[in-house]
Amino acid sequence: MNIVHKSIAALLLMTAVSSPAFAQQTVVKYMTFSAAPDYIEELDATIAAFEAAHPDIDVQYETAAFGDYFTKLQTVIAAGQAPDAFEVNYENFVAFADKGVLADLGPLISADTGFSTGIYNPTALAAFSEDGKQYGLVESFSNVVLFYNKDLFDKAGVAYPTADWTWKEELEAARKLTDTANGVWGDFAPIQFWEFYKTIAQNGGAMFNADKTEVTIDSPQNVETLQWMVDKVAKYHVTPTDVEMAGQGDGDLFKAGKIAMLRTGIWMFGDFSANASFNWDIALEPGNTNKAHHFFANGVAVSATSANQQAAYEWIKFLTSSKEAVDIRIKAGWELPAVSDAAYVQGYLDQPKPESREVVFQALDTAVTPPVIANWNQLTDIVGKELEAAKLGQKTPQQALTDAAAAVKGIL
Amino acid sequence: MEGVTGRGKYVALAVLLLPSLVGMGAFYILPIVSSLVLSFTKWDLLTPVQWIGVGNYVAALGDPAVQQALRNTLTFILGYLPAVVAGGLGLALLLNRKLKGRTVFRAIYFVPVVTSWVAVSLVWKWLLNPQYGLINYGLALIGIKGPGWLFDPNWAMAGVIMTTIWKDIGFVTVIYLAGLQEIPENLGEASSIDGATPWQRFWSITWPMLAPTTFFVTTISLISSFQVFDQVFVMTGGGPVGATTTMVQLIYKNAFSYGQMGYASAISWILFALIFAVTVAQNFLQKRLDKSDG
Amino acid sequence: MADRALRPGDYATWAVLGLGAVIMLLPFVWMVSTSLKTGDATFVMPPQLIPSAPTLANYSKIFAAVPMAQFLLNSVFVSVTSTVIMVLTCAMAGYAFARIKFPGREIIFYAYLATLMIPQQVTLVPLFVIMTWLDWGNTYQALILPSSFGAFGTFLLRQFYLRLPREVEEAAFMDGAGYVRIFFTIGLQLARPALATLAVFAFMASWNSFLWPLIITSDQSMMTLPVGLSFLNGRYTTDWNVLMAGAVIGTLPIIAVYVFAQKYIIQGLATTGLK
């Protein structure tokens, strides 16, 4: 061995010995929308717990508001700067999976002895697979139920909503609860894309046929549904107009005791528990011919181009299924972990407000997933605009849905 | 100045012109050329570029969203341009009188010009709030029930126009003031001796003398009207029912929300064609007017 | 001209100008007033111009929620840097175009002018792509450089130098100085008024720039004030007191600068190449 070889060997040896000393941590870059702005502390706590268990991994996160998130994510991916792991909701998951930017987690999962995906709620997990490949782990889900102000019901002498209520009972109650003099509205559900696809399901309708080759937005039962949504505002005056709301949120009005029944997400539990000074509870949403409830799921995926897929996988596994992460999540009301073990979510049911927390799980039996297509953002814009036109009385529900159907055909 | 020739000249060019050439090339010429190329393609950033010829242009011309944006822009120009030019000129004429405190007034009118559009939009969104806003409150005081402004598709554009006039009028005023100061004083005095009324004096002397200023102001305002974005983005997001959607907003949406880079580029070139056509037409009109005056 | 005797028309003029001034200032007053209100007081009718129980809570809320000082710093740094580069490169190029004869000068100059006709929006998509390819997304250079060059400024300075008599420079040439030295010793000095005008334009454009920073920044540490404010708008949609506090913070610095520099700013604008 000559001197050159010797020194090279020495160098190699030095590097090998010294690298642990330099503590070359693997950095996992993580991008999220659900943590910002209200659950940053919980995210920090989850990361701290993860890093305690994996001292060789350093999770760095970036948050973006939901409205900007997917634009941002798309651009950083296009720039070749994809975060190693990122959150993706069910609506956008399909497009991302189709474009090949998500890593197939299958090999990582099967190599991970001692871990079983049986820990997840099977339906929720299946939402993040495509063509038999698991492209993401399900992180959480949330849904929308009927919130009601018990005090207003008591004052108006109206019985609380029950699971067998239909739109008819809802409207009757809403008319009794509406008290214009005091600025109290009986009922509120926004007239927008998301509310629409769920509400048409409550009337047996859908946006597309089963394999999404045909647009059924303008079906008779959908027109009837939109008519009902609009009538609550324009005909029965049990729901405020945009002008009457003056840019205040429905949640703000509910907290102020100005809305008796509100269809909104379970993500409001924390806010209402802390800031509503009256008694309130939740119930299943009334339907017309069918029961239907929103189902929103967030998953976490690993970038197909990440150099640290193993570490990224460890992080998303921890985030979605570890007892620590689940507990933090439940305690804060940061959506619901999509784990199947009832013991994990017992802590959720045990919380004091609202009383009928089991409704959240009952609603899952009639869950409607978003009608996802590749041009998702365009779909929501096009339909949203037509619904707005109907809401403001610029178009009849029939006209609005006919126009929406024609426009959507063009992007299918 | 033929003192420097040969190598010295090229060294000077390298030092003086090259930085600008590189910057203009990298941040203007190259993006402009690429944009033109992109406008003939389909590209979503994530999958490979597809050449589709004039497909984007054909689609854009038949796109109801583009047509609506064009109509909105026209509405904006009709509401904004005459008001801001007439208002700015009026204020300039008043400020041109040698009154005490005029520099203070001038400074006040200019404050909105230096304020950022986003801040201005936020404040006006609040002022225009139908229930709790100061404007509808003021209208109620004089017995008028104010409209829903930004929540009402028939009034939203009016709200955006009002805001834009408020922000820009100081700029127009200052430009007109500069124009007025170019007019020799004795011209005005000579005709006042002739017994002309201020009104006659304005139309026979001031207005024609201000023609270059008016041309400048209308051109600048017209071009900026085609490019409205910030205030709409903050105040209405283009709504309600697309009543305030502008061309630039379509470009933004298509590029950064729908991931249609090619289509967004095509719309931006249509916008350019429009601005170009209007500017040329205005230039032509101006020359005709100059001739008929001369 | 000395003050002359007041005429009846003067009072009318004052009345009109005064009303105009109120309209121009009231939104600012309302902004400050709302920013000092509690949530409940914000939605009280009739509105209170002077809050009955003023609070600074909205300001602390904003500083706790977003790095407002960072936004401000970013805005200042980006605007000042791009203004300095803009003024310098435009003056140098304008001087070269006006004074140095070289092959292709006309063509290059017309290419510059052509960029004036093309709206910024045309360059948006490719510029974004170029920046991301360069790995410059969310960096200062991506914020600064695209607003550091411009045909308008080059044109303005070229016109200025063309109108400038050459005698002064001729003398220097006789002494054997080259273009570069003459530009830096004489050219820059002489062009000060035009440079000030350009600086005002460039600074205001960069300070208020929104669309480009909105696209190119992806985290709060790089956001400029307008983007930060827009971010607040998305987050506190209906908390007008908080939003107005944000607007005050976003407006105050530029108004402070304006109060000190308004004479120069307005004069700079007024002497734009109108002729």
Describe the structure.
The complex is a heterotrimer of chains A (412), B (294) and C (275). Chain A contains 19 helices and 14 strands. Chain A is α/β, with parallel strands linked by helices and 412 residues long. In chain A, the strands form four sheets. A six-stranded mixed sheet of chain A has the order 2-1-3-12-6-13. In chain A, helix 14 packs across helix 15, helix 15 (323-332) runs parallel beside helix 16 (342-350) and helix 18 packs antiparallel against helix 19. Residues 13-22 of chain A have low confidence and may be disordered. In chain B, a hairpin with a 7-residue loop joins strand 1 and strand 2 (50-51). A two-stranded antiparallel sheet of chain B has the order 1-2. Chain B has helices spanning 6-16, 18-38, 55-62, 64-96, 102-114, 117-127, 134-141, 156-182, 185-193, 198-209, 211-226, 230-235, 247-256, 261-293; strands at residues 41-42, 50-51. The longest helix of chain B is centred in the first third of the chain and has 33 residues, at 64-96. Chain B is 74% helix and 1% strand. Chain B has 14 helices and two strands, in the order ααββαααααααααααα. The mean pLDDT of chain B is 89. The relative contact order of chain B is 0.13. Chain B is mainly α and 294 residues long. Chain C has helices at residues 8-35, 39-42, 57-65, 68-99, 105-117, 120-133, 140-144, 151-163, 167-174, 179-190, 192-208, 211-216, 225-235, 240-270. Chain C has 275 residues and is mainly alpha-helical. Chain C has two domains: 31-65 and 240-275, no CATH class; 72-235, MetI-like fold (Orthogonal Bundle), CATH 1.10.3720.10. Chain C starts with 7 loop residues before the first helix and ends in a 5-residue tail after the last helix. In chain C, helix 4 runs antiparallel to helix 13. Chain C contains 14 helices and no strands. The chains are: A alpha/beta (412), B mainly alpha (294), C mainly alpha (275). Chains in contact: A-B, A-C, B-C. Chains B and C meet through helix 1, helix 2, helix 4, helix 5 and helix 6 of B and helix 1, helix 4, helix 5, helix 6 and helix 9 of C.
